[in-house]
Amino acid sequence: ILNVEQSPQSLHVQEGDSTNFTCSFPSSNFYALHWYRWETAKSPEALFVMTLNGDEKKKGRISATLNTKEGYSYLYIKGSQPEDSATYLCAPYKLIFGTGTRLQVFP
Amino acid sequence: NAGVTQTPKFQVLKTGQSMTLQCAQDMNHEYMSWYRQDPGMGLRLIHYSVGAGITDQGEVPNGYNVSRSTTEDFPLRLLSAAPSQTSVYFCASSYSISRPSYNEQFFGPGTRLTVL
Fold first, then answer.
1. B88 at the A interface (CB within 8 A)?
2. Nearest to A64 by CA among A45, A53, A82, A77
3. Strand pairing partners for B12?
4. Are the CB atoms for A87 and B41 separated by under 8 Å?
5. Phi first, then psi: what are they for B97, rounded to 5°?
6. B3 and B93 in contact (C-beta within 8 Å)?
7. Mean per-residue pLDDT for A90-104?
8. d(CA B114, CA B116)
9. pLDDT, mean of residues A26-54
10. How far apart are CA A68 and CA B101, in angstroms?
């Protein structure tokens, strides 16, 4: 079983704050990492896929970076909005997900 | 396209009962999988399939069976339901999982199962 850790488990921020969280994974046999966004009462939806060491992806106010040598990825949200409230999952091995970071943004 | 569909949306079972959770996709995806979601544990892989006729176990396969007779359908069977199987179940599909594919998974809406 591959150990995929996400931290923190949960995060509460004020609207307008910027935030970031981490996905850590064993770096051996890596080939792609997906980030998913999972809103309450909905299904997870893909945000990014990253494959190369040093990759950076951006979608609006959300961006992500990847370090395959040390086995981690960061997800950043700039100027958080209440609609960013969701659980963010990483999947560094396609079938295996981390436990997620639950973000709540208060107005 | 309907995407990934799951039925039923809700189900209550008594301990020892059996049932089948249905999953179908109309995107001609090779890969399908079943996950369960429990508080604080994210998504845990139960079983997966890389194509019709091919299935394999995930992290938590005990108590569940699957089959993949067609590309479209991937039902999950609970043989003898136990309270520990109370969970939300998600089915997902993807075009491929083989290298160098980087395709994301598409998820169904989930089935909330309670076992009394």
1. no
2. A77
3. B114
4. no
5. -120, 0
6. no
7. 90
8. 6
9. 90
10. 17
Q: Are B97 and B31 in contact (CB under 8 A)?
A: yes
Q: Is A21 exposed, middle or buried (0-12, 13-18, 19+ CB in 10 A)?
A: buried
In chain B, what are the helix, strand and coil shares in percent, each to the nearest 5?
Answer: 5, 50, 50
In the numeric block, which tokens belong to residue B65? Answer: 């069976």
How far is A47 from A89, CA to CA, in rounded Å? Answer: 10
B41–A contact, CB cutoff 8 A: yes
Q: Which of B58, B100, B110 is nearest residue A95 as measured by Cβ atoms? A: B58
Q: Name the 3-class secondary structure at A65.
A: strand
Amino acid at B38: D
| Nearest alpha carbon to residue B44 among B24, B64, B32, B61 | B61
Residue B99's pLDDT is 57
User: In sequence order, which residues have a C-beta less than 8 Å from that of residue A46 and are 6 or more positions away?
Assistant: A34, A35, A36, B104, B105
Structure tokens at A76: 């950043």
The per-residue pLDDT for range B6-50, each reduced to its tens digit, is 999 999 999 999 999 999 999 999 999 999 999 878 899 999 999
The CA distance from B49 to A28, in Å, is 24
Q: B interface mutation test: which of A40, A52, A97, A99 has the most B CBs within 10 A? A: A97
Task: Please state, in angstroms and as integers, the Cα–Cα distance from residue B66 to each residue in A26, A82, B25, B56, B112, following that order.
Answer: 29, 39, 16, 9, 18
* Cα radius of gyration (chain A): 13
